[in-house]
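tool_call: predict_structure(chain=1)
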Amino acid sequence: MTTGSLPDRVRRALQVVADPARAPAMQAYMKSEMPYLGVSTVPRRAALKAVFAGIEWPDAAAWQTDVLALWRGATFREERYAAVELAALKSARRFHTIDALPMYEEMIVTGAWWDHVDEIATHRLWTILQNDRAAMRKAMLGWSTDADMWKRRSAIICQVPAKAATDLDLLYTCIEPSIGRSQFFLRKAIGWALRQYAWTDPDEVARYVAANADRLSGLSQREALKNGGKRRGA
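tool_result:
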């Protein structure tokens, strides 16, 4: 029999496998204001698997309530990692429609760092794009011009897993508003998104980089062309 709220059960499970001696280095590496318990990835996932086993939700509202309760109530960074993992459970797949986007927007804006943002953008947002393409496409175009850098980054990298299913028009349109920006995380995102697509069509990425060489940062170009040796005919 389980006792306590879900956030309480998650916190207890993480504390059991925590190594407090590791926490300061983890916090320093991630440049995190929120402290760490000192739980590395493998024991964290094992602990959470036990806590999350059998969880089902009657509807999307109940799912979002649990995810946000864990996210908002977090006092240690691993608890926010747990919220992201909770959102990804197989039993929640059917809830990944455009209606889930406000929840993820909150997590991206308040998380505001690559460890949270990249996991959400490249997996959860990509799933929504697959399930609710027209509405999500419109939303990502809006995010691409947003004042929030992390929403822009998310729009750029939301198709990283897409391979041949990449919507090139969407990708290039989401890149365009940030192509001249100086922020490292936007320049890196542009290069990452292009590099991933280069595994599918290296010649197209080489063409795009050449056509925009005077506007793309050196970092974006280097990242985009890391797979250059894989070009057809090379």
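agent: The longest helix spans residues 114-131. Proceeding to next step.
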